[in-house]
Amino acid sequence: MVGTSQIILMVIAGLASVLLPFVFILVLRRRFKIQWIPILIGSAIFIFFAMVLEQISHFLVLQPKMDGTIPLLDKSPWLYVLYGVLAAGIFEETGRLIAFLLMKRKYNRIDSAISYGIGHGGIEAIIVLGLGMLNSVVFSIMINNGSSAVDNLPPALIESIAGTSAFTYILSIVERVFAITVHIGLSIIVFTSVMKKGKWWLFPAAIVLHALTNVTAAMMQAGLLDNMWLMYAGLMIMTLVIVWIAYKQVA
């Protein structure tokens, strides 16, 4: 059985994923001119490069089996981590680069980079956290109602939903706050590489920074790290590094 409090927190986390982009808009509009077109472009680029092209790459490179197992993960977890973090960095930052090259004439102010980052990070929050929580709520109701469809679900999935602590759902919201902040920072960095002469090196730097941001999460997924707090510490440290570098470009 899945507790009622757990289901309520799933719903709250899911709603938070939708509201977070608007919270960032409300906070940042005090200093920057938030623009809807770059926000929509950021959302579209994330969907195409991360959810389509990157997933095709995962299918071709990782070659997952019908049961969901990934040979590379079993044989060489460190190589799996290296591929995963670099793939995320290359696909998403390349999408960012192409977007800013196309936006260069009309949207050439730093406000556009920040707006883009909100769109990129915001749609990721909705897809990763929002849809994830929606699935968890549906599965939880099925489990509690004793639906026969539950028999077709992987036992690990049922155990994960039933065994997730309430605190984890709160942390998932905090994680998305950091993630959106990272995407805004990386957007500023790549934007600068496009708009300022002699700053081209910031684009490959953004790929590396993006990859490093995902390292502890990828290690957790690969079973190389089992301490959740170390995973979040890695995310927080990289968020501060990226924000500092982005601030240097704006200041």
Automatic annotation (TrEMBL):
Protein keywords: Hydrolase, Membrane, Metalloprotease, Protease, Transmembrane, Transmembrane helix
Keyword Transferase: no
InterPro entries (alphabetical): YhfC
Gene Ontology MF terms in the entry: metallopeptidase activity
Entry's transmembrane regions: 6-27, 39-60, 80-102, 123-143, 177-194, 201-223, 229-247
A Pfam family matched in the record: YhfC
UniProt keyword Protease present: yes
UniProt-recorded name of the protein: YhfC family intramembrane metalloprotease
